[in-house]
Specification:
The chain is built from 7 helices and no strands. It is mainly alpha-helical.
């Protein structure tokens, strides 16, 4: 255990985890704001917009759930710091790739699954780091700090992504 780490360093870790959770949630939420703009660009009907939007979100969560169950043991073996570094790089790649391949719906769907897979071990690895770096009496506070990244993303994503996507095109929300 690394419980002897300096107090400030532990709390810096909690803030870094909050930022990764914030970015991860922005990457997950961007599709909700992009779908109406994608529909206009690609000429989707109202039914297609609803169905494709639902499918793109559902595929993300399918990949997320499968990775959470099946890849977490591998991530534990790699270690939480290494795993988080790898998944942040991968989810950044798959998010950007989603904008690039968007004209091919099947490839866009594949990037959403891969984004979900890459994010699927994030929470278990953040929990592992919290368990390692924080004594029991500080874990709830540390967990609440990193989980607040999710709530900040939900709160700020429309403020950040909608003007960006409407001003510069929906693909900018994926970069």
């Amino acid at each position: 255990m690394i419980l002897s780490m300096a107090g400030h360093r532990r709390w810096q870790l909690a803030l870094v985890l909050m930022v990764t959770f914030f970015v991860g949630y922005l990457d997950r939420l961007n599709i909700t704001f992009a779908v109406p703009l994608m529909a206009a660009e690609f000429g989707w009907t109202e039914t297609q917009t609803r169905d494709y939007g639902s499918l793109l979100m559902g595929l993300f969560y399918a990949g997320y759930g499968l990775a959470n169950i099946f890849l977490t043991p591998l991530a534990v073996k790699l270690g939480p710091r290494r795993s988080i570094l790898i998944i942040v790089v991968l989810w950044s790649l798959f998010t950007a790739l989603g904008a690039w391949v968007s004209q091919w719906l099947m490839l866009l769907m594949a990037t959403r699954v891969l984004l979900g897979v890459s994010e699927g071990v994030h929470v278990p690895m953040m929990s592992q780091l919290t368990k390692t770096w924080f004594p029991l009496e500080e874990r709830a506070r540390a967990n609440s700090i990193f989980v607040s990244g999710l709530f900040f993303a939900v709160l700020l994503s429309p403020i950040m992504l909608v003007p960006l996507m409407t001003g510069f095109g929906w693909r900018m929300g994926f970069v």
